[in-house]
Amino acid sequence: MIPAHDSPLAAIAFSISGLEVATASEKGTVIRVFSVNDGSKLYEFRRGVKRCVSIASLSFSTCSNYLCCSSNTETVHIFKLERPSPDAKDAVQADDWMGYISKAVTNFTNMALPSHVTDVFTQGRAFASAMLPVAGLKHSCVITTIQKQLRLLVASSDGYVYVYSISTVEGGECQLVKKHDLRSIETTPPPKPFVTEGVPMVVPPATLPPGPSYASALKGNLNDSAKTVPPAEHQ
Fold first, then answer.
1. Segment Disordered: which positions (predicted)?
2. Each residue of 201-232: pLDDT tens digit?
3. What DSSP string describes 168-226?
């Protein structure tokens, strides 16, 4: 069992590999990512400080390096899941004197401040965000790759789909690339089935080509055969 949040869950999403699960509570301020194998907390992000936010959707990117979150506000947040490299990074940081200072400050902060205060400092912020033209609607978001470019797709309950570009280097505000109006898409109605129920079907009588009847034709063939057979010779 994973103790994700104190309040009830509002959204949950699994990564493509199924090894990670992201959760959001009804408060909608904190997003957490856990390991499915052992239930350990891998990431914790703060979506914002607004109260009464209703989370609409959570979704991992197809590469599992990003997590997007939509709500009833006009902002879609994108969080970057920083994958730590093997112990090389920690070794370099430990050898540097700045590494010692950073660890000392972190340890002091954890001891001196309450846990709910230190959580605010350790929570990650949004790597990128997209602004929607309308707030208050329900939106569903997903991050995928289109023509080798990372794109954010947001479907709105009013019938529009927005496509945003994502800068994987700098992050920041996503740029709107396309806007699709699903209401204007014409659909071809399916063909109507051929119904014969209640309609009398009249089968026309078969017509034969003009000519002699079968009996007369047979009689004529017999007469012709009798004429062509030569009489037998008597010995």
1. 213-235
2. 555 666 655 666 555 655 565 555 555 555 55
3. TTT-EEPEEEEEEEGGG---PPPPPP---TTSPPP-PPP-PPSS--HHHHHHHHHHHHH
97-153 pLDDT per residue, tens: 555 555 555 555 455 544 444 344 445 788 999 999 988 888 899 999 999 899 999
Strand 128-131, strand 172-173: pairing: parallel
pTM of the model: 0.63
- Measured in residues, the chain has a length of 235
Topology (CATH level 3) of domain 9-84+124-184: Methylamine Dehydrogenase; Chain H (2.130.10)
Domain residue spans in the chain? 9-84+124-184
